[in-house]
Amino acid sequence: MSHRTLLTLLAGAVLLAACATPAPQEPASAPPVEEKGVPAGGAAEAGAARPGAEAAAVQPEAVPPMDPLDDPASPLRERVLYFDFDSTEIKPRERELIAAHAQYLASRPQVKVRLEGHADERGTREYNLGLGERRAMAVRQLMLFLGVQPGQIEVVSYGEERPAALGHDESAWRLNRRVEIRYPGHDAP
Prior knowledge:
- There is one protein chain.
- It is elongated and about 145 Å long.
- The protein has six helices and four strands, in the order αααβαβαβαβ.
- It has a four-stranded mixed beta sheet.
- The N and C termini lie far apart (about 120 Å).
- α5 links the parallel β2 and β3.
- The longest helix has 21 residues.
- Helix content is about 40%, strand content about 10%.
- It has a domain of about 110 residues: CATH 3.30.1330.60.
- The protein is α+β, with helices and mostly antiparallel strands.
- This is Peptidoglycan-associated lipoprotein.
């Protein structure tokens, strides 16, 4: 064989080798792709893997705090003050209750209150209207002293017209000699 023939065969062999189809290879499985901070296992694992993610998932919506007027455990749920016969003197226990309401009102100048004065059936209608008003005014004066603004308080007297208890004895009269503290939008307990 000549040198030239040998070179031609060699060039042909190289050319055939270059054009040959490579043997099919088994496809390699793609490595799991991880998003930044998320493991390859998916969102379920992601929630468990991230600190605080579970707490955020079950976190209930923020509930606004209950108004103390609606809280059964609050002293502000008590809104009736009782008086002795023919008296406008506020008893020590009633002063504590008035102070609690005054503190609530002083911290919320937009809240208004109505003081409703009542009397038992003894006495004339006019006298009982005046007595109910004097009782409500006594409560108002103490509230003003404790920081409530005058525009927050309305005073009304019903005298003997709206008894809390029917009857013509001391057990009924005791419940009817009262001042009711009423907040619009908050029913009396």
